[in-house]
Amino acid sequence: QAQAQAQAPPLPGFWFESKYFEYNGVRLPPFCRGKMEEIANFPVRDSDVWIVTYPKSGGTGLLQEVVYLVSQGADPDEIGLMNIDEQLPVLEYPQPGLDIIKELTSPRLIKSHLPYRFLPSDLHNGDSKVIYMARNPKDLVVSYYQFHRSLRTMSYRGTFQEFCRRFMNDKLGYGSWFDHVQEFWEHHMDSNVLFLKYEDMHKDLATMVEQLVRFLGVSYDKAQLESMVEHCHQLIDQCCNAEALPVGRGRVGLWKDIFTVSMNEKFDLVYKQKMGKCDLTFDFYL
């Protein structure tokens, strides 16, 4: 069956398109339909911690576990035994749903992939903490492509080149990556926003853990902080090097294995056009 699937011709574009709907000019997944107003009015608490990312930015995988560890002072061995997704629901997903998230006990840890402007309006001027993680878009598009191919509901059968073109033309779920990161970058100096880069988690984890500890207002002494950094290192190893996972899913520099020279040139051009006025930078050659 897998072989038959692999040989199946790419599905017509309209079938893939029909998975999305447009809301205020942004493509969103079908499960967001009919609830955007309720999301805008979602009651936010000052003690909330929100993790927001564009899909496949490493935030809802790796970062959520690090944040959970730091904020709860949790034992990493326990994290391995629990379903972390149940502890950190995604606001817009059908499960567990807005009603249940509203009732969770404080402090709530909540995730979302929605653009800044669609998040609950309380978040825009409140005290609850928002952690945003951005990932270099070349690695992200590879990871997003692999995800679309593995997801039964999407069954994306196009080529990577076609998928990359969609990404550059803002034709994927959750809209334009370029708008998503720039919108958040405009708020990176807000006192309740911490803007992180996925690559820094691999490059200098200790500094990122210290940033999180400060931002979340958790108190650790030096020994506890060192132990926490060590736990987080173990988590990253498990997430990025586990043999059961698709090869190098969380690796930095993933794009170099799949981008052709001409694709890379085209991508750089689009990147420059869309990010030209923004002082946010990514190191593509770590």
Quick take:
With 286 residues, the protein is an alpha/beta fold. Helices cover 48% and strands 9% of the residues.
Low-pLDDT ranges: 1-15, 243-247
Distance between the termini: 39 Å
Number of helices: 15
CATH superfamily, by name, is P-loop containing nucleotide triphosphate hydrolases
What is the mean predicted local confidence, pLDDT?
A: 84
Q: Order of strands across the biggest sheet?
A: 4-3-5-6
Largest sheet: 4 strands, parallel
Number of strands: 6
CATH architecture descriptor name:
3-Layer(aba) Sandwich
Radius of gyration: 19 Å
Helix content: 40-55%
Shape, principal axes of CA atoms: globular
How do the SSEs run, as a string of H and E? HHEEHEHHHHEHEHHHEHHHH
Query: Which CATH class?
Result: Alpha Beta
Strand content: 5-15%
Number of domains: 1
SS-derived structural category: alpha/beta
| CATH fold-level assignment | Rossmann fold
